[in-house]
Q: What sequence folds into this?
């Protein structure tokens, strides 16, 4: 239990105004983007730098009080819930871009930096930080690293893990360690790789060395409109098997189109069953040819219409609409669960039919917006949380979809992480031995189970 | 006949119910509209500055919900976070789910207001300003004559030297510093009730002059009328119009706001107007929302709809009627600041920019975070000087770093605030002043 003495100690580390213990204030930290479960912490502290994180963690470690790191709180798996109470260490104050090194194409950032701000800052020099989760306008890089976040453009550029060179971590006992560095170092164990995607269960990331890349010379963005979902998904498969690797390939279904139309008045074509956003980037020369090929494949698969973004403005608007898709669900429902289960691309048509059936079975509305290029689904199951029966049904529907994905050779998460929500499903994809092995690794870092306990494998 | 009575009885019951609901609760359905996605966080000035969930739109809505569900009780900390909101509505612009945040915060404040404990002096001051002075044109006029004397005849100098106000109240002291130079109040007579364009009349327009604008920035009002006349508008500025009620809505005094709204509707509806034009975004946004404010007043709701459908911000109006572009050159590098109540409250972003770009010689500069609140927010800068100062500094850094000669915006509160922060001879204009200048061939 957190007592006054410990709170005083924490206050002496981060400053009085940066420790929150008032019940009325703590309540807002009881959940993140996953609202089904609520766990109120006993305190929230806001450290200003690595040393403060380390000192605070040492205090908590000695007193055996659990602690959980949090960024913007936009996660969709309940990864930063204080499941066992204790203290939330919120990193929003650590939001400095410490160093940008254009020559070596790296940057050093604190975990509280907002993802999009990095690209905004370096774009005038012709650079970009490639991972672009849809929440990038608010989510922090620390959270992105912890969840190994993806995004539409992972199709070509890979997820967060492909863009991280090193991390500085405060381990669960408070010691500060640095793994990796400014150059790709393949010697020794890849602890950086272990840290990425560990969802804050092995330590708290306090600095991140990221790769930045050159902005491509040009983009070409298409919007293809389909009468059936089948046509849309087979188009995506055919594009990939033809040897083209688009930067992004996203499908939005009619339910989501409806919500987005209400939110943005984008004027999507009427009565479409699905639209596909396809983007290619690279050297301008030759792009027209690839574009033509894509258009042909779309038409051959019965696309009703293929539009091209005429300028940056149109492209930006299209992406704005796509990236705000989940945020727009409030237009048609009060709550939703989404999971990010993934299947081999060729199984997409089958899975979407299944999702449709599940919707009917549980009489719930399900919207689909997903990264078709890498088979990463995002069925948003809508419900009304004031109706307990509906909540249960929604939960079961989402679970069944995930299960089916696993049976089809897929997995339960493509980019959101396991967190609290999906830990019960880990045994679908891992054997008892696998899980035990992971638990052993966790034990090496955190023998007392203080660091973000109750997540992933616990 | 019987049927009719029955119906009107029902309407009455309905509206009574609504009244009770409006008094006692925050609209729960609106709260549920928030799906807790957090996409609004980084548009919120207080969250950007503090990084605290309680001072973010999502966090505040969460607090409202907890309050409605009796999971928390009103407390000092709750008041603090609800009060620190600038009501800039940047969250409404950001929210893909279309959460009606402004309505929620207004309802919440209204409910919390009676539970707050004010000192008797503050209480007295609040009721004096909200209930006695602002609603009355005569008293406002008297106040501004007083302020004019105060500035003009060295009283200010004495008061500042002796730090008299600091002894009474720190807030009052801070507010006094904000006081810009005040034009002689009689200058307002230059705008007559009916003014006719020299050329053919295209529109008949009512001018909503705004109480602060009229006394502090009469020149902007004069410029507005000039520009309207140049565009073939017959301008009617009714003498008995009153404050729009914005300050009362933000200050949890909705009842007074409703009375003011009714008065304005009565005044303007008789005039057979094509449009009602306001040049202060903080006013036009409220005027446009009269139907919402009067939704349970059977006698006024429909009239409010008609009234509000005619309300236009000056830049919106000029853009829509395709402004007369016989401009002369105004050579100036001008930064544009998006006033919250224009950009977020009314979605007017493109219009003023397009108008300004038409002026030859004028170079329009985009600043970073141009739609982030400057900290003015009605009387926010008086009540929360600390946050207001932080936001002003941020805004001024963004403006000054562009090397602009002037900054232009469309709202009185912003102008007062920006004047306070302006350094190195940075000038502050209302959009309409630059347009007026372009008509006059007034080279600076
Ligand atoms: S107010 Fe809108 S953007 Fe903000 S959390 Fe709620 S739904 Fe999301
Ligand atoms: S109105 Fe402005 S200050 Fe208030 S919550 Fe919304 S964005 Fe933040």
A:
């Amino acid at each position: 239990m957190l007592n006054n003495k410990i709170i005083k100690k924490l206050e002496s580390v981060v400053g009085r105004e940066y420790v929150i213990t008032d019940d009325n204030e703590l309540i807002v930290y009881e959940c993140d983007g996953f609202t089904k479960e609520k766990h109120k912490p006993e305190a929230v502290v806001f450290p200003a730098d690595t040393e403060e994180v380390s000192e605070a963690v040492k205090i908590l470690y000695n007193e055996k009080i659990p602690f959980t790191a949090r960024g913007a709180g936009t996660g969709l798996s309940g990864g930063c819930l204080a499941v066992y109470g204790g203290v939330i260490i919120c990193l929003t104050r650590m939001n400095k871009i410490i160093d940008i090194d254009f020559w070596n194409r790296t940057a050093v950032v604190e975990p509280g930096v907002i993802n999009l701000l990095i690209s905004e800052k370096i774009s005038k020099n012709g650079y970009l930080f490639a991972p672009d989760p849809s929440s990038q306008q608010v989510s922090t890089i620390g959270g992105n690293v912890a969840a190994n976040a993806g995004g539409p453009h992972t199709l070509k550029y890979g997820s967060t893990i492909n863009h991280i060179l090193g991390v500085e971590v405060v381990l669960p006992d408070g010691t500060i360690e640095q793994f990796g560095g400014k150059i790709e170092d393949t010697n020794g164990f890849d602890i950086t790789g272990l840290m990425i995607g560990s969802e804050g269960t092995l330590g708290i990331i306090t600095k991140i060395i990221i790769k930045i890349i050159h902005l491509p010379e040009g983009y070409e963005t298409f919007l293809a409109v389909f009468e059936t979902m089948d046509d849309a998904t087979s188009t995506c498969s055919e594009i990939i098997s033809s040897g083209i690797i688009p930067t992004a390939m996203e499908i939005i279904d009619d339910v989501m189109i409806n919500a987005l139309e209400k939110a943005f008045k984008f004027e999507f074509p009427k009565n479409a069953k699905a639209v596909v956003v396809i983007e290619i980037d690279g050297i301008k020369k030759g792009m027209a040819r690839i574009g033509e090929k894509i258009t042909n494949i779309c038409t051959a698969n019965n696309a009703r219409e293929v539009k091209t973004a005429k300028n940056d403005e149109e492209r930006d608007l299209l992406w704005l609409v796509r990236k705000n898709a989940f945020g727009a669900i409030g237009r048609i429902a009060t709550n939703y669960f989404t999971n990010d289960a993934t299947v081999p691309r060729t199984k997409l048509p089958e899975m979407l039919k299944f999702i449709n059936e599940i919707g009917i079975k549980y009489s719930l509305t399900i919207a689909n917006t997903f990264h078709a290029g890498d088979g990463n689904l995002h069925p948003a199951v809508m419900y009304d949380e004031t109706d307990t029966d509906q909540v249960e049904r929604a939960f079961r529907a989402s679970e069944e979809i995930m299960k089916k994905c696993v049976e089809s050779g897929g997995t339960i998460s493509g980019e959101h992480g396991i967190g609290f929500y999906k830990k019960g499903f880990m045994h679908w994809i891992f054997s008892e031995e696998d899980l035990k092995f992971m638990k052993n690794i966790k034990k090496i870092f955190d023998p007392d189970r203080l660091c973000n306990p109750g997540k992933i494998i616990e | 006949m019987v049927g009719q009575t029955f119906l009107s009885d029902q309407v009455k019951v309905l509206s009574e119910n609504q009244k009770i609901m409006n008094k006692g609760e925050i609209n729960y359905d609106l709260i549920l509209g928030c799906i807790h996605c957090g996409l609004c966080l980084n548009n919120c000035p207080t969250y950007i500055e503090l990084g605290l969930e309680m001072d973010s739109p999502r966090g505040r809505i969460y607090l409202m919900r907890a309050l409605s569900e009796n999971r928390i009780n009103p407390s000092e900390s709750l008041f603090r976070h609800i009060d620190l909101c600038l009501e800039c509505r940047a969250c409404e612009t950001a929210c893909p789910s279309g959460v009606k945040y402004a309505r929620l915060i207004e309802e919440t404040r209204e409910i919390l207001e009676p539970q707050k404990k004010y000192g008797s002096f503050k209480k007295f001051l609040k009721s004096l300003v909200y209930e006695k002075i602002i609603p009355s044109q005569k008293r406002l006029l008297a106040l501004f004559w007083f302020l004019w004397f105060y500035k003009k005849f060295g009283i200010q100098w004495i008061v500042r030297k002796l730090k008299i106000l600091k002894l009474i109240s720190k807030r009052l002291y801070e507010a006094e510093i904000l006081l810009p130079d005040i034009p002689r109040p009689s200058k307002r007579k230059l705008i007559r009730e009916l003014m006719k364009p020299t050329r053919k009349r295209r529109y008949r327009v009512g001018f909503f002059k705004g109480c602060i604008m009229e006394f502090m920035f009469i020149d902007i009002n004069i410029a507005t009328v000039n520009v309207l006349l140049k565009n073939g508008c017959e301008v009617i500025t009714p003498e008995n119009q009153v404050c729009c009620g914005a300050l009362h809505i933000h200050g949890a005094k909705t009842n007074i706001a409703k009375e003011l709204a009714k008065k304005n509707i009565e005044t303007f509806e008789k005039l057979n107007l094509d449009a009602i034009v306001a040049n202060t975004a903080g006013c036009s946004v409220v005027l446009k929302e009269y139907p919402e404010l009067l939704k349970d007043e059977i006698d006024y709701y429909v009239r409010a709809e008609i009234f509000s459908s005619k309300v236009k911000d000056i830049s919106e109006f000029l853009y829509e009627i395709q402004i007369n572009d016989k401009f002369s050159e105004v050579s100036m590098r001008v930064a544009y600041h998006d006033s919250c109540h224009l950009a977020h409250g009314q979605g007017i972003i493109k219009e003023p920019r397009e108008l300004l770009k038409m002026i030859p010689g004028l170079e329009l500069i985009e600043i970073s975070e141009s739609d982030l609140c400057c900290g003015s927010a009605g009387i926010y800068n008086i009540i929360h000087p600390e946050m207001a100062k932080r936001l002003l500094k941020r805004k001024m850094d963004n403006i000054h770093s562009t090397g602009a000669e002037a900054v232009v915006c469309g709202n009185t509160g912003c102008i007062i605030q920006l004047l306070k922060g302006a350094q190195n001879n940075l000038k502050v204009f209302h959009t309409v002043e630059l347009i007026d200048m372009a008509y006059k061939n007034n080279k600076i």
